Amino acid sequence: MSADDLPEADRVEGAPHPRETMRLFGQETAEAGFLEAFNSGRLHHAWLLTGPRGTGKATLAWRIARFLLATPITQGGGLFGDAPPTYETMDISPDHPVAHRLLARSEPGLHSITRSINEKTGKLRDMIVVDDIRKLTHFLTMSAADGGRRVVIVDAADEMNVNAANALLKMLEEPPANTTIFLISHQPSRLLPTIRSRCRELRLTPLSPEDMQQALMQAGADERAETPALAALSAGSVGEAMRLMRLGGLEMYAEIVAIYAGDRGPDRPRALKLAEAAATRGAEDRFDLLLTMFDTFLARLARTGATGQPPHPEAAPGEADLLLRLAPNPHKARAWAEIAQTISDRTRHGQAVNLDPAALVLDTVFKITETASARP
User: Fold this and answer.
1) Which among 19, 52, 57 is positioned nearest to 184, based on CA atoms?
2) Contact 261/297 with Cβ under 8 angstroms?
3) What are 46's strand-pairing partners?
4) Which one of 10, 73, 196, 283 has the fewest beta carbons within 10 angstroms of its own beta carbon?
């Protein structure tokens, strides 16, 4: 099996790999922070890229890598004492040799660490293991001779086991010359404090609907995609928006809203149909997304009760009126927040012990109905 045929732990299904994505939308502050450090001549050796999943952390890491590897190292001033150049953008032409080598996975100055293939099972490991980090030692040793830049990307650093994390920590404590390490982290609290303390943080933020639309079009989405609703349900995450489009998340959420839209209680036939679809063989991904949509619905109910206003934009037809009716005050907001935690615990436990998905969906529908019927 060739490298092109192997699964990639750092690729979102249905979307281009970050190395194939030339532009980054909505993260101008993070880019400016890195460029300021680069232009100052005091570039930190290790960077922690944080923020919600799908907001462009990996794309930023590969974009910076492309910039660093294509930009020559300057030693002090120029021939006549002039200052080194100041860069206002990290844009690199797709025709640049470094860009071509990155796409071909043949750039000698870059090493990417992700969850590797378990040779015994032929499947991706659940975590980054110490052997993956040891390959980095070999890379740095073998590639230091030419004096050029070296870039390392760890995606995601949260997935390192204890031995891998300790091995990486030793490298962060004694960084090689002209080497920049990028740790992509969705949950920085899971990293060793000593690792975090040796990195400079760049935090990425959720995308606006406008930036989301541009990012989705770059990823190959239909320009007619319902971007406002996708941005609302994905919390500004392009990766999550791609999952919603691929698995029909907008339609799922609209069905949840429709189940409770009537004044006489939940639409039971609709709920049964939704439950039966969740139990279909091979629909595990859709079932997991359906549970996420229930979590999102409950979170938006709690937010409505707490603020007195439904979230904007509306994520499904009739959602705003429904949220205001079911969550009219802060007291009800607390009730929705409490039942959200209860439902999440019940469904995740049900998944862990392989309970019938249809039964879990119906149980969720009835728990929401009980809360809706209770006095405000």
Assistant:
1) 57
2) no
3) 181
4) 73
Range list of H helices, 53-161: 57-70, 97-103, 130-142
Q: Report the C-alpha gap between 168 and 140 in whole angstroms.
A: 13
- Cα of 253 vs its chain's centroid, Å: 21
pLDDT digits (tens, 9 = 90+) for 252-281: 999 999 999 988 788 999 999 998 888 787
Q: Residues 249, 69: contact at Cβ < 8 Å?
A: no
Q: Which of 26, 35, 93 is nearest to 59 (CA)?
A: 26
Q: Round to whole Å and give the CA distance between 102 and 121.
A: 29
Structure tokens of 57? 């952390």
CB atoms within 10 A of CB 183: 29
pLDDT value at residue 82: 60
* Residue 160 DSSP label: B
Gyration radius of the chain's alpha carbons: 24
Report pLDDT digits (tens) over 213-229.
888 888 877 766 788 88
Q: What type of residue is 223?
A: E
Cβ of 83: how many Cβ atoms within 10 Å?
Answer: 10
Global confidence as pTM = 0.82
The overall longest dimension of the chain from CA atoms, in Å, is: 83
Peptide bond into 188 cis (omega under 30): no
